[in-house]
Design a protein that fits this description.
The chain is mostly helical. Strands 1-2 form a two-stranded antiparallel ribbon. The relative contact order is 0.13. Keywords: Heme, Iron, Metal-binding. GO terms for molecular function: electron transfer activity; heme binding; metal ion binding. InterPro entries: Cyt_c-like_dom, Cyt_c-like_dom_sf, Cytochrome_c-type_DH. This is C-type cytochrome.
Length: 353
């Protein structure tokens, strides 16, 4: 079994509807160029049965970094074995989300070959999009994604979960290098010229990709303790509870601007907000905002999960991040309480309220 080339799709330009220039398809990369690309990638990443990440190609040694320490051949081989048993039919051999059953699923399985991982607890101090931590990936594999076809693998051992996480990181590194080298081949007039330039560029490109996974490039956003949890249910008096709800609803409607996508009642109904029917994710899939009243939160329904979603956003979607200048931690906690309260008990809220 060998890795193969699979198109790197991107969302069309929302305004012009023109193809995204960052897209890389089979039409652009002809079979001869695909074979050149395979020759460049195989020495670095091996095969599905014998995966590796040969960072020496980039002149690197594996640092003492938890994100990278488990990318040894033994762990990757076990991760690949488990991936081919449990994951390949949805996520595909190369991690493109186009496995044999993936095409029938909505939402589609995740494409692991980009920096766009939706559910994470990390941020990059520079403002760039941060990759998830190993713990973020493991949490998703262990818990599954409610409301999607991603099941829970909680019965796997800790070592097995860690091995799959390592293999997903391997697929991410390979896919991102494939995209970068493929663009070089497409942009050069001749394959020989493109292959030579790809060989020259490979060490620096690989170094950048490997280092993007190190913990020093991203920090876990620590969830500050709630002023009081649960705020609304723990209110000392009915009037205090009503005041907390009023403040939270005011944030939801005004300062937080949540109603622009989720609607005044939290349902995000496209019949009331027509733009929601046209919203798409990074890969071009139709993705309307979450109906908050259903209580199904794909990134997790723990209070801290919702705090991360509001503070860090959901990468690859229209759900934006917020910083402390936009919403304080206390205000984020108020919104978390309000969303959880809405999903359990709250009837539709009219504008008159």
């Amino acid at each position: 079994m060998e890795y193969y080339f699979s198109a790197h799709t991107r969302r069309p330009d929302p305004q012009t509807k023109q193809p995204n220039p960052d897209e890389l398809t089979e039409t652009q990369l002809k079979p001869e160029a695909q074979r050149v690309l395979a020759r460049l990638l195989k020495p670095v990443f091996g095969t599905p049965a014998h995966p590796k990440v040969d960072v020496e190609q980039a002149g690197l040694q594996f640092p003492e970094d938890r994100e990278l320490a488990s990318l040894d051949p033994q762990t990757l081989a076990e991760g690949s074995r488990l991936y081919r048993r449990f994951c390949i039919h949805c996520h595909g051999i190369v991690g493109d989300g186009r496995g044999s059953t993936g095409r029938w699923l909505n939402p589609p399985p995740r494409d692991f070959r980009t920096i766009w991982f939706k559910f994470r607890s990390t941020y990059d101090p520079s403002g760039a999009l941060a990759l998830p931590s190993r713990e973020d990936l493991k949490r998703t594999i262990r818990s599954g994604i409610p409301g999607a076809s991603m099941p829970s693998f909680a019965l796997l051992s800790e070592y097995e979960l860690e091995a799959i996480v390592s293999y997903v990181i391997h697929l991410n590194m390979r896919g991102r290098l494939e995209h970068a080298l493929g663009k070089i081949l497409v942009e050069r007039a001749g394959l020989s010229e493109g292959e030579a330039e790809g060989k020259d560029a490979l060490p620096d490109l690989l170094r950048q990709i490997v280092e993007s996974w190190t913990t020093r490039r991203k920090l876990v956003k620590k969830v500050p303790p709630a002023p009081r949890w649960p705020m609304i249910e723990a209110a000392a008096t009915p009037s205090e509870s009503a005041e907390l709800i009023r403040r939270a609803r005011d944030l939801f409607v005004n300062k937080g601007a949540c109603v622009q996508c989720h609607g005044i009642d939290g349902r995000g109904d496209p019949r009331e907000i027509p733009e929601n029917a046209q919203r798409r994710d990074f890969w071009g899939n139709v993705l309307p905002p979450r109906d908050l009243t259903q209580g199904v939160f794909r990134g997790g329904s723990r209070p801290q999960d919702l705090f991360w979603r509001i503070r860090l956003g959901i990468a690859g979607t229209d759900m934006p991040a917020t910083d402390e200048k936009q919403l304080s931690d206390e205000e984020v906690w108020l919104l978390v309480n309000y969303v959880l309260d809405m999903s359990r008990t709250r009837p539709p809220i009219s504008l008159a309220e």
